[in-house]
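Reminder to self: tokens first, then the designed residues, so the page reads top to bottom the way the pipeline ran.
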């Protein structure tokens, strides 16, 4: 636990539950996303306003990023990419609220997302190319194929590890620094750190999402 007091953990203790703060706050983030989506779409109008207007800007931005990174084929993976982006962003941001824990500051949460991206990448590759997807691991020169296959396998296996540790290290490290500043100077000094935390939350959400798109786009491409 990074925060000295966690609201949902206190509720767990009162109910004698032992779930884990990263799980309970993941549920909270899921609830936030579901409620906001419901409120934004329950009365859709041609002239958007309020939550609908905000989400349209977000959705349009993500859609444009997918098309720019993955091409037209990437449109099919919009639900996955948008969910990853919004989930990570909200997880990162709630850590700036006293009494709330960012699920992305836990290895388990990040590993689950990274492994999901890893699995989907190769499922997409085999669905698109069939057994020919293995050519992605062979390299351009046939007599180097055995060596390239080993190198590519190691590289692909390192992807979920790098995705997990990058997000975890940044979010956990920021939480520790923020808590130190809050303990030393509890009033005005932590404000710049919290503003920096918003920037870190945005950047880390973007990096994870961008890498997920690049991996899936690579699986969709023809082997060279």
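Designed residues (224 positions):
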């Amino acid at each position: 636990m990074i925060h000295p007091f966690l609201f949902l953990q206190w509720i767990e203790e009162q109910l004698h539950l032992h779930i884990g703060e990263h799980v309970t706050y993941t549920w909270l983030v899921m609830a936030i996303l579901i409620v906001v989506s419901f409120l934004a779409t329950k009365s859709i109008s041609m002239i958007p306003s309020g939550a609908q207007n905000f989400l349209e800007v977000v959705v349009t931005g993500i859609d444009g990023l997918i098309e720019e990174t993955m091409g037209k084929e990437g449109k099919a993976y919009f639900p996955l990419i948008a969910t990853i982006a919004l989930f990570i962003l909200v997880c990162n941001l709630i850590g700036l609220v006293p009494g709330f824990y960012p699920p992305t500051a836990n290895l388990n949460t990040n590993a689950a997302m990274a492994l999901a991206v890893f699995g989907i990448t190769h499922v997409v590759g085999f669905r698109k190319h069939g057994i020919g997807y293995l050519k992605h691991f062979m390299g351009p020169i046939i007599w180097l194929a055995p060596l390239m296959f080993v190198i590519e396998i190691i590289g692909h296996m390192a992807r979920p590890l790098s995705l997990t540790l990058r997000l975890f290290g940044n979010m956990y490290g920021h939480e520790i620094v923020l808590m130190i500043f809050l303990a030393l100077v509890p009033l005005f000094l932590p404000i710049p750190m919290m503003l920096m935390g918003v920037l870190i939350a945005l950047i880390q959400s973007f990096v994870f999402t961008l890498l997920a798109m690049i991996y899936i786009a690579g699986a969709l491409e023809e082997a060279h």
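The chain has a mean pLDDT of 83.
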